[in-house]
Write a structure and sequence with these properties.
The complex is a heterodimer of chains A (566) and B (365). Chain A folds into five domains: 70 residues, Orthogonal Bundle (Arc Repressor Mutant, subunit A); 56 residues, no CATH class; 210 residues, Rossmann fold, CATH 3.40.50; 91 residues, Ubiquitin-like (UB roll) (Roll); 90 residues, Up-down Bundle (de novo design (two linked rop proteins)), CATH 1.20.1440.230. Chain A contains 24 helices and 16 strands. Chain A is globular. By secondary structure, chain B is an alpha+beta fold. In chain B, the strands form six sheets. Chain B has a five-stranded mixed beta sheet with strand order 2-1-5-3-4, covered by helices on one side. The chains are: A alpha/beta (566), B alpha+beta (365).
C-alpha cells in the first residue's frame, strides 16, 4: 500500500502542462477549486509557480489566492504533502484509538471528522479513504448501507437505497426514479412549488427553513441565471448521512436538483462536495454523465430549449464551507468567510444572483414527494411534524449507522430499540446533538423526541441529525475539550467573538483557565453568552452549547477539572 | 440628496432610534443613521470608507423582533425598524468583547505617532473598563521584525484581525498586496507567500498604517521621532508633490516636522496618500539642504554669497537669454518639494516677468 513517498499523480509522458490544465478549466463554471486540485494532484503540492500561473490566468490577486489556499486543510504547500495520509482524530475515532493509529503512521497528520463514524478509523490517502483501527487493517471499503428499517416505519429517502443497482440510471429508473420529475415537467412550475409547500418539507441540513418558501423566493427574485446549489459539504462531526445518500442514491439528489431548477427557473447547479468523500465524487460524476447522456441534463433538460446542467465541485477541507454563504464564496473562488446576511442567497447567492442552497437530504426527498404526493410526505411525521429525518448515530451504541426516523420520534427508542443500546453493560452518560453543534443532552433531557421544538426546549437543536453516544466510562471534559478544539480550529477568523472565544474556551477545557471555580464559570459563561449572541454565523453561536451543557449536566466533573488544573 | 417621499425632508422613511423617530435615506445602515444622530456606538473593524465588514461585533444594537443583537454596520435600515443603541446587555457584550481583544494582544497602549487610528482600541478599552486581565491565554499574531522596509512596521502581535489593512489595500488603493492567511486564532495578515512588503505589490502608500486601530501596523518614520520633546501639533495643508491636492496634516513638535498623516476628510484623497506624500518629508530638515544662496565663481566652484548678489547674477543671466533668444527661451520648472506659495510665485514670475507660458512642475499629475 503506497502511503508514502508519493511525488505526483502522473508518470512521465502523460503529465499535463500548466497551459493544458489552465485551458481545460478556464472557461468552466467555478474553475478555481478544480484547478487547484489538478495542480495539487499533479505536483504533489501547490507550488509557488502553480499558484502564480493560476493567479495570472484567472486574474485573482496572488496575495488573495495564497491566503485563500492556506484557509483549507487539505491543500499542501510542502512538496509531497498531498500524499501524506490524514487520520481522523474526531470524537468517535478518538474512542477507537485514533491517536495510536496516527502515531503508527510516519508523515501522517490528523484531520477533523471526515464523516465515517459508522466505520473503523478512516484514513484519507490521496483520492481514496481507507478504514481500520490499525495500520495492518486499513482497507478501502464502500459506505455502509443504512441498517434495515423497523417494520412499522415507512421511510422516504431510504425507501429504495438498499436495492442493488439503485445508484445506476437503469436501477434508479427501475425503482421509479425520474418518473415524478417527468410528470412535473409536463405541468407548471407553480404546481411544483405548491406541492413542495404543501409537503411541509424543510431544510434537512440543520436550519429547517421551509423548502417551498425558499424555492418560491428564488423563482420570484430578479436576476438571471439562477442557480441550484446542493450543499454536500457534510462537515459536522458525527454526520455521515449525505455520504450514504449520494453513494447509493445519487440520482435522487440529481432529480431533486432538476426539479428545483424547473420550479425556480434556474439553468445551472453545483454539488459542493466535501473533500473527504473522494469515492462519492466519482459516483456523482458517473451519475451526472449518465443523466447527461439520457438528456436529463443539458440543452433541453427542462423541455425543448430549456437548459439545465450540473457540475460537482470538490471542497478542500473547511468546516465553515458547510455554512451556505461561506460555501458560495468558496465556490466562487473567494476567501471562504461567511457573508453578511441579509441579503440572503435567495436573492444574492452564487455570483450575487438568486440561488437555492439545499442540503443533500432535502433534495433527495423531493423525488419521493413528486411520486407519492405532499400529503403522503407530511403524514410520515409524528403528530404535527412533517416528514422524516435521517439520524447519523455513532459512538457507544451496538449498531451505529444512519436511521431514517419519523420527525418527532423518541430519541431513546432509536438508541435502545433500533440501535441496540449501549454495549458492554455500560450506561448512557450523554449524547451530542446536531453533531457537535448542539452540545450535550444527558439525564432527564434524554427523554426527548427528535424534532426541533422538543430538542430546542432542552436548550439544544437537532441540526443535521448527527447524534454521538457516550457511555458512562467516557470523560466528558475530554470530549468537550476535543469538541471545542474542533470549533477553534474551524473558526474562520472573521468575527471576534468566535475567533477569540473558541480559543479561550478550548484553553479553559484544557485546564489553562482561572484556578478558582467561581471565576472559571464566570469566564466561561461570559464568553459563551457573548459568542451566542454576537457571533456572525452559526459556528460561533453554537460552539458554547458544548460548555453550557457541560456545566449544566456535569457540574461535579467541571469542579474537579478546575481543582485538578489549579 | 434623494427624496422620493415627496415630504421634502430628504428622507425616504423613518425608523425608531432609542425611542425617537428619525429619517433614513434608502440604503443607509443602522450604524450610519445612528452616527448621524451622534450615538456613541463602538467599532473596531469599521472604516467609513470601506465596505462594512461585520467582524468586531462591537457595533451591535438591539433590534425589536430579532432574537440576538444585530451588527449595525452591516444591517440596512428598513422602514419601521425599532432599534436601541445602549442597554445593559449591549454594554455587557461590548465589555466582554473588549476584554477578549485585550487578552490576545501584547500591548494595549501604543504611541499615537503609530498612525491616525492607532488609539481606537485603547480608547474603547478604557471606555468599557476592559483592562481586567480576564480571558488570559495564548496571544495571536506573529510580528515580522525581518521586514526591514523603512516605512511600515509590521508588529502583528498587536493585530486584532479586523482586516481593515487588507480591505483598504484592496478597496481604496487597489494594490491587493496583503491578504488573510490561515483560519481562526491562527489568522495572520500576509503578503503573497509570506514575503516582505518590498517584494510584494505594496506601493507603501501607508493607508494600512493609518486605518490600523491598534498600531500593529505603524509609521516607522514618525515613530523614529517619538523622543522629540514637546506636544504634537497638527497643521492642515495640501501635499505639494502633484496636482491631486491631497489634504495632509503635518505633525510637528516645536519647529521639527515629525511626520505626516493623511486628512480623512480631505476632499481629494479621503485619507489616501502615496508613498511620497506619506513618507517623503526628510528633505525639509535635511542637513544637506541648501540654506543660503551660492554663486559660481571664476574658479568654476559654488561660493556662499548674499541674496542681492545672487539675485543680481540670476537676473543678469535671464536678461541676457531673453535678449539673445527671445522670451520663449525661458522655461520654468517648479519643484514638487517647494511650498504652494512658492509654486504660485514661480508661475507668476515666469508668466508675468518673461511673458511665456512655459511653466511646469516636476511632478505634474
Amino acid at each position: 500500500m503506497p502511503l508514502f513517498g508519493y511525488a505526483g499523480n502522473y508518470d512521465g509522458m502523460n503529465t499535463p502542462s500548466d497551459a493544458e490544465l489552465l485551458a481545460k478549466w478556464r472557461e468552466e463554471p467555478a474553475p478555481l477549486l478544480p484547478l487547484l486540485h489538478e495542480f495539487h494532484e499533479r505536483d504533489g503540492h501547490l507550488s509557488e509557480n502553480a499558484l502564480r500561473a493560476i493567479s495570472d490566468d484567472l486574474r485573482i490577486p496572488i496575495a488573495d489566492l495564497f491566503g485563500t489556499v492556506t484557509f483549507y486543510h487539505h491543500f499542501s504547500r510542502d512538496p509531497g504533502g498531498y500524499a501524506h495520509a490524514r487520520v481522523c482524530t474526531g470524537p468517535i475515532c478518538a474512542l477507537q484509538g485514533a491517536d495510536e493509529l496516527l502515531a503508527a503512521m510516519p508523515n501522517a497528520h490528523a484531520m477533523p471528522c471526515p464523516g465515517r463514524c459508522d466505520e473503523p478509523i478512516p484514513v484519507l490517502d490521496r483520492d481514496r479513504v481507507l478504514c481500520g483501527t490499525t495500520v495492518a487493517e486499513l482497507a478501502a471499503r464502500p459506505s455502509p448501507l443504512p441498517p434495515a428499517p423497523h417494520p412499522d416505519i415507512e421511510e422516504c429517502v431510504f425507501a429504495h437505497i438498499r436495492t442493488p443497482g439503485r445508484a445506476t440510471l437503469a436501477g434508479y429508473r427501475a425503482t421509479g426514479g425520474y418518473s415524478g420529475l417527468e410528470d412535473a415537467l409536463c405541468g407548471r412550475p407553480g404546481a411544483l412549488l405548491d406541492a413542495i409547500d404543501a409537503s411541509g418539507l424543510a431544510g434537512r441540513g440543520g436550519a429547517g427553513f421551509p423548502t417551498g418558501r425558499k424555492w418560491r423566493a428564488v423563482a420570484e427574485a430578479a436576476g438571471e441565471p439562477r442557480t441550484i446549489v446542493c450543499n454536500a459539504d457534510e462537515g459536522e462531526p458525527g454526520c455521515f448521512k449525505d455520504r450514504a445518500l449520494m453513494d447509493y442514491d445519487p440520482h435522487a439528489v440529481i432529480e431533486g436538483m432538476i426539479a428545483a431548477g424547473f420550479a425556480t427557473g434556474a439553468t445551472r447547479g453545483f454539488i459542493y462536495l466535501r473533500y473527504e468523500y473522494p469515492d462519492t465524487m466519482r459516483i456523482l460524476e458517473t451519475a451526472l454523465e449518465e443523466a447527461r447522456g439520457d438528456g436529463l441534463l443539458g440543452a433541453d433538460a427542462l423541455g425543448p430549449g430549456r437548459p439545465f446542467d450540473l457540475w460537482v465541485r470538490r471542497g478542500a477541507g473547511a468546516y465553515i464551507c458547510g455554512e451556505e454563504t461561506s460555501l458560495l464564496n468558496s465556490l466562487e473562488g473567494q476567501h471562504p468567510f461567511p457573508r453578511n446576511r441579509p441579503p440572503f442567497p435567495v436573492t444574492h447567492g452564487y455570483e450575487d444572483l438568486p440561488t437555492v442552497v439545499n442540503n443533500v437530504e432535502t433534495l433527495a426527498s423531493v423525488p419521493h414527494i413528486l411520486v407519492h404526493g405532499a400529503e403522503w410526505y407530511r403524514g410520515l411525521g409524528i403528530g404535527d411534524h412533517a416528514g422524516t429525518k435521517v439520524i447519523s448515530l455513532s459512538g457507544d451504541v451496538a449498531r451505529p449507522g444512519n436511521y431514517e426516523v419519523p420527525m418527532g420520534f423518541p430519541l431513546m427508542t432509536l438508541i435502545d430499540d433500533w440501535a441496540g443500546g449501549v454495549p458492554r453493560g455500560r450506561k448512557i452518560q450523554a449524547v451530542t446533538m446536531a453533531g457537535l453543534s448542539g452540545g450535550f443532552l444527558a439525564g432527564e433531557a434524554l427523554d426527548v423526541t427528535l424534532d426541533e421544538p422538543d430538542i430546542r426546549s432542552k436548550g439544544s437543536f437537532l441540526g443535521a441529525g448527527g447524534i454521538m453516544v457516550f457511555d458512562d466510562s467516557r470523560d466528558m471534559i475530554e470530549v468537550a475539550h476535543s469538541a471545542m478544539e474542533f470549533f477553534a480550529e474551524e473558526s474562520c477568523g472573521k468575527c471576534f467573538p468566535c475567533r477569540i472565544g473558541t480559543q479561550r474556551l478550548t484553553e479553559r477545557l484544557h485546564g489553562d483557565g482561572p484556578p478558582d471555580i467561581g471565576a472559571w464559570i464566570d469566564e466561561v459563561h461570559d464568553l459563551g453568552d457573548t459568542m451566542m449572541q454576537t457571533s456572525a454565523c452559526g459556528l460561533g453561536q453554537a460552539a458554547p452549547l458544548i460548555t453550557e451543557s457541560l456545566i449544566r449536566y456535569f457540574p461535579d466533573r467541571v469542579s474537579r477539572h478546575v481543582a485538578e488544573s489549579a | 440628496m434623494s427624496d422620493n417621499s415627496g415630504n421634502g425632508t430628504g428622507f425616504d422613511f423613518e425608523i425608531t432610534l432609542d425611542g425617537e423617530k428619525v429619517g433614513v435615506r434608502r440604503g443607509e445602515s443602522l450604524y450610519e443613521v445612528s452616527e448621524r444622530h451622534r450615538k456613541e456606538i463602538p467599532t473596531l473593524c469599521y472604516d467609513p470608507r470601506l465596505e462594512a465588514f461585520g467582524g468586531c461585533r462591537l457595533c451591535i444594537v438591539e433590534l425589536d423582533g430579532a432574537r440576538n443583537p444585530v451588527a449595525s454596520c452591516t444591517t440596512r435600515a428598513e422602514s419601521g425598524m425599532r432599534i436601541t443603541t445602549r442597554s445593559a446587555r449591549l454594554d455587557m457584550h461590548r465589555r466582554v468583547l473588549m476584554e477578549m481583544v485585550a487578552s490576545e494582544n501584547r500591548d494595549t497602549d501604543v504611541d499615537p505617532l503609530s498612525g491616525y487610528a492607532s488609539q481606537e482600541m485603547a480608547v474603547l478599552l478604557d471606555r468599557y473598563e476592559a483592562r481586567t486581565g480576564r480571558f488570559a491565554g495564548a496571544r495571536s499574531g506573529r510580528s515580522r521584525p525581518d521586514d526591514d522596509n523603512p516605512f511600515i512596521l509590521r508588529d502583528y502581535e498587536n493585530c486584532i484581525s479586523c482586516y481593515r489593512c487588507v480591505r483598504v489595500c484592496a478597496e481604496q488603493e487597489g494594490d491587493y498586496a496583503i491578504s488573510v492567511m490561515n483560519r481562526g486564532f491562527e489568522t495572520q495578515i500576509t503578503t503573497e507567500f509570506e514575503g516582505l512588503l518590498g517584494d510584494s505589490a505594496c506601493t507603501f502608500c501607508g493607508q494600512c498604517i493609518q486605518t490600523c486601530p491598534t498600531g500593529a501596523l505603524a509609521d516607522i518614520k514618525a515613530l523614529a521621532n517619538a523622543d522629540v520633546p514637546g506636544e504634537t501639533e497638527k497643521t492642515r495643508t495640501v501635499c505639494p508633490y502633484c496636482g491631486v491636492g491631497c489634504a495632509v496634516d503635518l505633525m510637528s513638535r516645536g519647529d521639527k516636522l515629525i511626520g505626516v498623516q493623511p486628512a480623512m476628510d480631505g476632499p481629494a484623497n479621503e485619507g489616501a496618500l502615496c508613498v511620497k506624500g506619506q513618507f517623503a518629508f526628510d528633505f525639509v530638515q535635511h542637513p544637506d539642504r541648501l540654506a543660503y544662496p551660492m554663486v559660481r565663481g571664476e574658479d568654476g566652484e559654488l561660493h556662499e554669497t548674499d541674496w542681492d548678489t545672487a539675485l543680481d547674477r540670476a537676473a543678469a543671466g535671464f536678461t541676457a537669454a531673453v535678449e539673445d533668444h527671445g522670451r520663449h527661451s525661458v522655461y520654468g520648472v517648479a519643484s514638487g518639494r517647494a511650498p504652494h506659495e512658492a509654486a504660485y510665485m514661480m508661475q507668476r514670475f515666469i508668466r508675468g516677468a518673461f511673458g511665456t507660458n512655459q511653466i511646469d512642475n516636476c511632478s505634474r499629475a
